[in-house]
Amino acid sequence: MAEKKGKKMMWDGRFDCGMAQSMIDLSFSLDFDKELLEEDIQGSLGHGKGLVESGVLTKADYAKIRKGLLGILDDVHAGKNLWLPTDEDVHMAVERVLTDRIGDLGKKIHTGRSRNDQVSTDFKLYMRHRAAEVRALVVELQKSVLDVAKKNFGKIMPGYTHLQQAQPILFSHYMMSLFFALSRDVKRLDNFLDLHVELPLGSGAIAGSAFPYHRQLVAEELGFERPSANSIDAVSHRDMALEFLNDLAIIANTLSRYAEDFVIWSSSEFGYLTLSDAFSSGSSMMPQKKNPDSMELIRGKSGRMLGNYTAMFTLVKGAPLSYSRDLQEDKQPVFDSTRTVKVLLRVMSEAISSARWNFDKMEDRMLPALLATDLADILVEDGVPFRDAHRIVGSLVGEAAKLGEQFTDLSDEEWAAKGVPNPKDVKKRLTFAYSVSRRNIEGGTGANSVKNQFKKADAILKKESK
Questions:
Q1: Which of 267, 283, 324, 354 is catalytic?
Q2: What's the rounded Cα separation, in Å, for the pair 371 and 290?
Q3: Which of 96, 109, 198, 379 sits 20 to 30 Å CA-CA off 7?
Q4: Tens digits of per-residue pLDDT, 44-56?
Q5: C-alpha to C-alpha distance for 253 and 300, rounded to whole angstroms
Q6: Contact 34, 83 (CB under 8 A)
Q7: Residues 217-262 pLDDT 10s
Q8: Is residue 337 flagged as an active site residue?
Q9: Are residues 232 and 97 in the same domain?
């Protein structure tokens, strides 16, 4: 029999020749899916226990296999390069090294298992592990946000809509908006972990294993609640990856919006925020520059996270069931988004904790127009219909704008002429502190309301930490 040409593969019994180098370049995935090494070892250890219960392996066999698998993990962690150019992916590479080390017994570990259900299991384990890590980082950011809000309680700043000054708010109220947005991210990750609890192993390539495989035992061994109900579903779908990427993209999008504010706030035109030097950078040409690069990079990388989600959606939308090799491309977007969001969360947490918030600048920038809504509210309280009150205040603001003044600078007579009763008394009440104090409704920016937000936040963190 003529020797096969090309590189020999572990599955090439069916083939007359080895794989072409160009095909190897196209299809080999070890360079990126080796990130699944720990999950692959964990999955094989669980699978091995199932094979013992099925009678395929003896306990002595399993002990030898277990020692071999853990030895591979230890060696890789120690920096040893165990891989060869012929290793197609991390799953085949681990099996090859195991067989090299313990002999033919290593070939038995794949009994009753396809790479389809093996990969699906490894990938689900990876996402569950990383989701727990991301969740912990979100909670740490929440703690930083709450700490900044509490330390600066009582400080007033201009609130914005359309990047125009709108109404006075407490700085703490602004920061707590980030806290509660992050609390929903935690809930999304919790929902994700609660939903994806089925073990794919035992599904085989499409039809299920032919061995009396104890799937519930393996499920519990690997931290799943139960085996998957349908083998085609288990190996075909990537909705778990889509959901994970969506959750991570939402986190990044939220951070991006606050990063955008912080970039603006750190400009000389605003001056509300001074980032620590540790989270800034300079210019190679302009020696005076201190740029808010940390926030700009958070803002920029959120687009990359959306791109990963879009790539996954595009990948799976036309893939026929049950498995096609297209699905090999599902891992890189997840790996990249996971690494990226973990860095974003750490940077945002450390940057806001070390930043200097310039409340004197915030106060200096506050325009009297911020009080226009309060004037309208006062008129309503004095019996003026809201639409009439809105028109009166609008006409005052418009008149002042024509004169290049603030509406509070107009004379009492001009206020009275527009329909404001007791202008002198009303003007005394129109202060930024008064405006904030009026809004103690639940969820408002009043001091009592914000204190209640702190209490809710403390309770949320206590629950999230359980």
A1: 283
A2: 34
A3: 109
A4: 999 999 999 999 9
A5: 10
A6: yes
A7: 999 999 999 999 999 999 999 999 999 999 999 999 999 999 999 9
A8: no
A9: no
- Residue 400 included in any domain: yes
Catalytic residue, chosen from 162, 284, 411, 465, is 162
Ordered alpha helix ranges (H), 318-410? 331-354, 359-365, 372-381, 386-403
Rounded CA gap, 286 and 223, in Å? Answer: 55
- 140 lies in the same domain as 279: yes
12 lies in some domain: no
Tokens 């309208």 identify what position?
376
138 lies in the same domain as 286: yes
Assigned domain for 19 exists: no
Coil, strand or helix at 147: helix
Same domain, 244 and 293: yes
Range of the domain at 453: 365-464
The partner residues of 159 in beta bridges, in order of sequence, read 167
Q: What's the total number of domains in the chain?
A: 3
Q: Is 283 a catalytic residue?
A: yes
Phi, psi of 254 (to 5 degrees): -60, -45
Domain CATH code at residue 172? 1.20.200.10
Beta strands in 69-207 (DSSP E): 156-161, 164-170, 198-199
To the question of pTM greater than 0.85 for the whole model, the response is yes
Angle subtended by helix axes 37-54 and 115-151, to nearest 10:
130
Is residue 18 one of the residues assigned to a domain?
no
Mean of pLDDT values over 364-388: 92
